[in-house]
């Protein structure tokens, strides 16, 4: 319904994306602005068929065709009174005549044929007024209530669930699907100090570098570098590690136990 257009003010969905067409019992659409303008006092006449309308009866249009909107509204109101079922008649022919009468009333009201006679005939199925309507509703309610104990007394059955293709859920169909392998959990982590294979004395620690004279001839970091996480001790420690790692290097490798001793 992207090509919606108000037949009165010619406002389109393109120019006003929030456009909503409203319809009443006659089925002729109007936009919300025209409804507010024409029915400012609460009542008014339709711009096309001049039928008296009430502002409270306007609703949002669901179908593009106004005749369909009118027929849906007529059937909705008509079926509130013409609500008999096949069990209410003695024969199938009487029930078919009843349905044909309903369709004839709908056709006349939708096409504005014999409106007065058709409206007068609506009271003919109920000569006693609301008494018959209440009896029809009461009979239906009693039938529904009597069916409820029978439904509750039935044992609940767990029906097997199937896919839309008819395959039952849980059946492997002979396919060998490997089971999910759970990873084996190893022992808990235990910290062990790293053995340094430097074949000589250990290099200074961070505290030794900060307290000693190692940073005396090293460029101090700027404010920007310090904000980024860099300090001059990092470069100094890197240089000391490289120096001590190859200071006492020999082709003969020593065992970790010998280094510790």
UniProtKB/TrEMBL annotation:
CDD domains: RING-HC_MAT1 (cd16517)
Pfam families given in the database record: CAK-anch_MAT1, MAT1, zf-C3HC4_5
Domain MAT1 C-terminal CAK anchor: 198-249
Record-annotated RING-type domain positions: 3-46
GO CC field: transcription factor TFIIH holo complex
GO-annotated biological processes: nucleotide-excision repair; regulation of transcription by RNA polymerase II
Metal-binding as UniProt keyword: yes
Record's subcellular location: Nucleus
Domain MAT1 centre, chain residue ranges per copy: 53-142
UniProt name for this protein: CDK-activating kinase assembly factor MAT1
Lineage: Eukaryota, Metazoa, Ecdysozoa, Arthropoda, Hexapoda
Encoding gene, per UniProt annotation: LOC103515204
């Amino acid at each position: 319904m992207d090509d919606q257009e108000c037949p009165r003010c010619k406002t389109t969905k393109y120019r006003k994306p929030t456009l909503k067409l409203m319809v009443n019992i006659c089925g002729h659409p109007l936009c919300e602005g025209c409804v507010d303008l024409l029915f400012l006092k609460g009542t008014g006449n339709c711009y096309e068929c001049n039928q008296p309308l009430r502002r409270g009866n306007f609703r949002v249009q669901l179908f593009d065709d106004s005749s369909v909107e009118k027929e849906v509204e007529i059937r909705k109101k008509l079926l509130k009174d013409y609500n008999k079922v096949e069990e209410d008649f003695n024969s199938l022919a009487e029930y078919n005549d009843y349905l044909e009468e309903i369709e004839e009333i709908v056709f006349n009201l939708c096409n504005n044929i014999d409106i007065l006679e058709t409206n007068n005939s609506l009271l003919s199925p109920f000569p006693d007024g609301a008494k018959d309507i209440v009896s029809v509703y009461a009979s239906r309610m009693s039938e529904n209530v009597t069916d409820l104990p029978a439904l509750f007394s039935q044992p609940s059955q767990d029906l097997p669930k199937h896919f839309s293709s008819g395959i039952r859920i849980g059946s492997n169909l002979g396919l060998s699907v490997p089971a999910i392998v759970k990873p084996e959990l190893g022992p808990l982590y235990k910290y062990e100090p790293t053995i340094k294979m430097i074949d000589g004395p250990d290099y200074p620690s961070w505290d030794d570098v900060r307290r000693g004279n190692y940073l005396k001839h090293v460029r101090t970091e700027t404010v920007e570098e310090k904000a980024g996480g860099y300090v001059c001790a990092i470069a100094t420690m890197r240089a000391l590690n490289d120096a001590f790692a190859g200071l006492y290097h020999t082709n003969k490798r020593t065992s970790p136990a010998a280094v510790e001793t």
